[in-house]
């Protein structure tokens, strides 16, 4: 049995002390070619993003940590950690990590600018049985954006066990605040697909599927979202001209619908 460390508190935003026994494996090493491409692109984004105007991009990253996601949890954590390491050189991205699991447990971290600190927070989370709480994720994004503008919401999950109409209503509130939601769906649950597509449509975001065999594609898409949060659509446009720009192309294509 994995021993847990107490997660961050949503009210105080206190970061928990890591417990080695509860940590998960780190991200796999990227190939030299892809690392060079990412580094080259990140260097160009530095001049395009909000950092040039003195502002900082803010990204709320939310995860379904219920038991159905346990089989691929390590893979997801590894890719999510890579996503932020790939853009940390931009220096203009703040991230808040949120997750839900168990009997109504939903927690959010403080806002983090250090990619390694974010990876450490992620490794402290383990999957517990429970129902989805996506409504709380959307409400958290709304509250945070009312305090200070959020560039984007990223959600990673595999199921929806809440009324879609209620989620659509909360997504509409995000739309009024100009917060796009990027929903990454693990597996092919039809009800989740309907809900995620509707949330993406309402917020002018995007919905993408991923599975055990699509690690490279998910990494590309997650990195594209992080770059968008740091540099906006101008940064994504710059990625389109690059060989690794398929993720940016997919996201922009959906955002323009």
How would you sum up this structure, described in words?
With 257 residues, the protein is α/β, with parallel strands linked by helices. It has a single domain (31-255), classed as Rossmann fold. 45% of the residues lie in helices and 16% in strands. The protein contains eight helices and six strands, in the order αβαββααβαβαβαα. It has helices at residues 32-45, 73-87, 115-123, 134-147, 164-176, 190-203, 215-240, 246-255, and strands at 57-64, 93-101, 105-112, 152-157, 181-186, 206-210. A six-stranded mixed β-sheet has the order 3-2-1-4-5-6, with helices on both faces. Strand 4 (152-157), helix 5 and strand 5 form a beta-alpha-beta unit. Helix 2 runs antiparallel to helix 3 (115-123) and helix 2 (73-87) packs parallel to helix 7 (215-240). The longest helix has 26 residues, at 215-240. It starts with 31 loop residues before the first helix and ends with a helix.
The name of the CATH architecture is: 3-Layer(aba) Sandwich
Number of helices: 8
Structural class: alpha/beta
| Helix-strand string | HEHEEHHEHEHEHH
Q: Stretches where pLDDT falls below 50 for ≥5 residues? A: 1-35, 41-54
User: What is the number of beta strands?
Assistant: 6
What is the radius of gyration computed over CA atoms, rounded to a whole number of angstroms?
A: 17 Å
Q: What oligomeric state do the depicted chains represent?
A: single chain
- Regarding CATH, which class? Alpha Beta
Q: In angstroms, what separates the terminal alpha carbons?
A: 46 Å
The averaged pLDDT comes out at 75
Largest beta sheet: strand ordering: 3-2-1-4-5-6
- How many structural domains? 1
Q: What is the overall silhouette?
A: globular
Q: How would you name the CATH homologous superfamily?
A: von Willebrand factor, type A domain
Report the sheet-strand fraction.
15-25%
Secondary structure: helix percent: 40-55%
